[in-house]
Amino acid sequence: MDEKTSELRDIFVETTGSETVTERQAESRGTLTDRDEAAVDERVREVVAAMRERYDFSTDLDDATYARIARGRFEADDDEAVAAALVEEREADEDGERSEAGTESAGAPVVEPATVRDARLDLHLVREADREVDDAAFDYDDLKQLTAEGRSIVECADALDVDPDVVAKYARIARVDLTSTRTNDRFRDELRDLLTDAEIEGSHAETARNDGLEAATEDMETDTKL
Where does this protein have coiled-coil stretches (predicted)? Predict the structure, then answer.
């Protein structure tokens, strides 16, 4: 190893050391997680509107509520918690409006957990728990494959040797998964990236390494070999 190559390697190691990467990771997380939430909410609603135009939604909830359910998918453990949060938020909004108008609150309309689930599935936001078959009566992937082949619920039940009612419970999940797959999970992934820090996973360290390499090699001969 000649002197210039040694110098380049030392600079590269120093520039891309663990302490430097950690600092860049912290900076990246701060930049992404401190995004304008109003802009995020607006984009989520745009995704919801695009999906409503493309697919038949199964509830009469408006886009704002769908957007809130999408956010709830990543904030709460289950649909019951999301439904409860929706009611609380609506009650708070209505209490504020009635207080300003000088009227009494009649209580916010209840959004049932089943409705939340339907809306969540409309948005391709399947939870892993949705795919967990009770008592392991059959393998979910087998049902998904049969559904992809165009089999009916009865035909799937015959092939899996289970009751059609049991298959029906998971058939919609399989259809949602397949529909999402046909779009390369585009909508699901965008909602996830908007509403979580998933987009920074696996990218901040690579960016830091690239930045370090660029700084290390700046103004040096490009034909130097390590």
Answer: none
Average of pLDDT values for 54-83? Answer: 95
Q: Tens of pLDDT along 17-45?
A: 544 444 334 343 344 445 688 999 999 99
Q: In the numeric block, which tokens belong to residue 80?
A: 């019951």
User: Which helix (H) or strand (E) is 89 found in, with range?
Assistant: helix 79-101
Q: Residues near 128 by Cβ (< 8 Å), separated by ≥ 6?
A: none
What residue ranges do the domains of the chain occupy? 127-184
Asked whether 24 and 208 are in contact (CB, 8 A), the reply is yes
* 124 backbone φψ class: left, alpha, beta (φ>0; ψ -120 to 50): left
> 73: closest CA among 187, 169, 201?
187
